[in-house]
Amino acid sequence: NELALEYRQLAVERADLTTRLAATGSGEPLEEEEPEPDIDPNRIYRMSSEIAAPALIQNSAPRYPEIDARLRREGRVVILIVVESDGSVSNPKVLKSASKSMDQSALNAVKKWRYSPGTLSGRPVRVSLVVGVDFALQKQ
After folding, report:
1. For 116-139, what is each residue's pLDDT tens digit?
2. Nearest alpha carbon to residue 79 among 135, 128, 126
């Protein structure tokens, strides 16, 4: 919200400056440009209408844990990840567990995934995403 308020204030100041410059009588129409937002390379952005979403380009299937397969246990592990500006995955954290062994297998797999990075104003940024990793036994 602070970034949106700053952005709005900058747009108001820019419009005021454009009006004052036009009043100097140069006769030249001034083109209005959208100011580019400052992009902090260390900031982790949340998905919003201003962010072009990262796209999964390479994934690695998790290994089905033997203990869970023997118990015929299925489940979904929900993980919070950060897609880095180079498309790699960092900081995976389990938000919803299926079992300890499934959680660990899912974390190991997600760390190998690659994305096209999320972008803000056409520039790559770090973006947080929530992903799900499903474990389902094959029906025979």
Report:
1. 999 998 999 999 999 999 999 987
2. 128
Q: Find the Cα–Cα–Cα–Cα dihedral 114, 118, 119, 125, rounded to 10°.
A: -80
Residue 75: both structure tokens together? 């489940």
As a dihedral over the C-alpha atoms of residue 69, residue 72, residue 78, residue 81, rounded to 10 degrees, the angle is 0
The structure tokens 């979904």 sit at 76
Is 57 exposed, middle or buried, given 0-12, 13-18 or 19+ CB atoms closer than 10 A? exposed
Q: How far is CA 106 from the centre of its chain?
A: 19
pLDDT: which is higher, 100 or 20: 100
Produce one character per residue of 15-36: b if its CB has 16 or more CB atoms within 10 Å, e if not. Answer: eeeeeeeeeeeeeeeeeeeeee
pTM above threshold 0.70: yes
Q: The tokens of 55 are what?
A: 């796209």
